[in-house]
Specification:
mainly alpha, flat, 2 domains, 354 residues, 16 helices
Amino acid sequence: MNSAPKEAGIRVGHFRQVLGAALICWSGACFTAVLGPVVTPAGAQDQYSDDDCARIFDSAGTPNAFSYDPRAPLPGFDAKQAIYTCMNSVKRFPEERIFRVALANAYWFASEREAAVRVLAHAATRFGGVYRSALDDVSGLDRNDDALEILKTLAKTEADAQAVLAHFYHEGLGVTEDRDLAASLFRRSAEQGNPEGQFQVGWALWSAAESDPDNAMANEWRSEAEPWLRKAAAQCHLEAQETIDETYDKVDENQKLRNETLIKARRGDVIAQGRLGREYLSEMFGPQSDLDAYAWLSIALERGSQESESLEYWRHVLTGRMSSSQVAAAKALTAYKTFSLCGLNVAGLAAGPA
């Protein structure tokens, strides 16, 4: 393969605006056991509130444990309890980035520093294009020597760390700027299935072709970019999907909105889930549309939608016009879509300090 110019298209601004965490294989084929059962750290209580994870860090005065000048936890702060609580918060609300950052902080204060960096790297590279606050959540990594060394060690083998480190080398954050090394790390990350790496490789190729359309390699670059972008979009990388919509598929505005809503719903956005359920309901494309409507309405209800009364009404309407076999199929589809939500596979949830 002839490589695209290194400067072409590395989406620096994108990474500065994007954080969160998610992994999905829509087919279910690559759902792994990373999630596993939540392991309760010794001494942690089995009772928790959905708000406790955020409250723990409000009271502890620790907005970012990786900061170049971190505040020490206040007296009475229990890092092991915080890990357990935030594990559950992330599982219940995969779209809420604050819980992932809080979980990483808890690991750091519990001296589980490799787990802390791994959680942040996972968060920083697997929710591309939905959360617009980016390097804020990993900004401490480039100014914390211990964390940066851990990141470099993880990047020898792990795709998430490779993608984060690639951005650091591309921008010269905590390391000497090296665009060639950044491109190599993005490629390694992409080949291991990281959606941020896949997006960056695809974007670099596509933007190289667009910036130099008369180049003899332009068509080859454009063709090579497409599968990388589609792989990233299949893992809920919103910006990859937007690029495909605008450049390859050239869909209309309504379809762009539908695709955006679908990705957000798959990433755990309860508002998008309810909206998607109503959209499938209104289109009346036949039984399969009803099944999808039932599934997304049910997921939104299960996740505590504030529109529960309206969504429950429409699910009741659906149930009334479906056969018993269709209802059974709809419930099975609900379970499958729930299983396939992006945020379910979250690095660090299956382990805690002893």
